[in-house]
Amino acid sequence: MSASRKCLCCVKYVMFVFNLIFWLGGCGLFGVGVWLSFTQSEFSSLPLSFPSLSAANLLLVAGGITMVTGFLGCLGALKEQRCLLCMFFVILLLLVLTEIALALVVHIFRDKLDSKAQGELKEGMKSYESDPGLKKSWDNVQKMFKCCGVTNQSDWYEVLNGTLPSSCCSVGIDQCADGWKGLVYTEPCYNKARDWLLENIPSVLVFGVCVGVVQILALVFSMLMYCQIMCAEKYLD
User: Fold this and answer.
1) Torsion over CA: 59, 64, 67, 69 (sign)
2) Which of 98, 100, 127, 222 could pair with 131 as two cysteines, CB 3.0-4.6 Å apart?
3) What is the DSSP letter of 47?
4) CB count, 10 Å around CB of 42?
5) What is the distance between the terminal CA atoms of the chain, rounded to a whole angstrom?
6) What sign does the dihedral 84-89-94-99 (CA atoms) show?
7) b or e along 47-69 (b: 16 or more beta carbons within 10 Å of the residue's beta carbon)?
8) CA-CA distance, 55 to 48, in Å (whole number)?
9) For 121-167, how does the pLDDT look when each residue is reduced to its tens digit (9 = 90+)?
C-alpha cells in the first residue's frame, strides 16, 4: 500500500470516528429536546416564545440537522465519495456559521428578545377565558413555578377585569385577589421559567460546546480527506 493510500485510510477512519461522535451528539441534543417537549407538554398551548418551549424546539431542530449531517459525514468517509464529502462540508460549514450567528444575536439582542417574548405572552393571555387549552397551560405554569403573570400580577388585570386567576393563589380557591399576603404568588412567570431553564441546561450547553469542537474537527478532516482523494485519483491517473 502506498504512503498516500495509508494516509487516506488513516484520515478516513479518524473522520468516521469524529462523525460518529458528531452523530451521537445530535442524537443527544434531539433526545433532550424530546424530553423538554414531553416535560413541558402541559404548556403546549402557550406561544413558542415561552423559554422552555422555545428551547425544546431549538434543540429538536439542532439535533435533527446534526444527526443528518453526521450520517452524511460517516457515509462520505466510508465510501470516499467526493460529492458526499463536499455536501457534508458545505452543510456543516453553514451549520457552524449559523450557530455562531445565533449565539451573537442572542447575546447582543437578549434584552430585545426578552421584551418581544414577554409581549407575545401578554398578547396570548387575552384568550385566557375563551381558549380552554391556553387557560389550562397558564394554570399549570403558575402552579408549577409558583408565579403569577408574565412580568407581574398586574398582567392579569386587563384580562380578568382587575382580578387574578385561581392558579395565582397557593390554596385551592375559586377566586384569587391581590393583597392576600402569603397566598398570592408574586414572582413573574417569565423570569421563573427562564431561571428554571438556566438551572437545568448547563450540562446541555457543555455538551453543545463539545459537539461544536467536534464540528470544527470534522470540517478540517473532511477538507483533508477531500484533498487526499483528489491527490490519490490524480496519482492513479
Assistant:
1) negative
2) 127
3) -
4) 15
5) 17
6) positive
7) bebbbbbbbbeebbebbebbbeb
8) 9
9) 888 888 888 888 888 888 888 888 888 888 888 888 888 887 788 88
Q: How confident is the model at residue 235 (pLDDT cuts 50, 70, 90)?
A: low
Which stretches of 14-133 are assigned E, i.e. beta strand? Answer: none
Answer left, alpha or beta for residue 146, where phi above 0 means left and psi between -120 and 50 means alpha. Answer: left
Which residues make Cβ contacts (< 8 Å) with residue 89, sequence separation at least 6? 219, 222, 223, 226
**For residue 151, what is its C-alpha cell?**
412580568
Contacts of 4 (CB under 8 A, 6+ apart): 228, 231, 232, 235
Number of residues that this document lists for the chain: 237
Helices (H) and strands (E) in the chain, counts: 7, 0
Instruction: Give residue-wise pLDDT tens across range 159-182.
Output: 888 778 888 887 655 556 555 555
What are the φ and ψ backbone dihedral angles of 180, each rounded to 5 degrees? Answer: -80, 85
- Looking at residue 156, its amino acid is W
Taking the model in full, what pTM does it have? 0.65
Q: How far apart are CA 121 and CA 114, in angstroms?
A: 11
Could you give the CA distance from residue 237 to residue 228 in angstroms, rounded to a whole number? 14
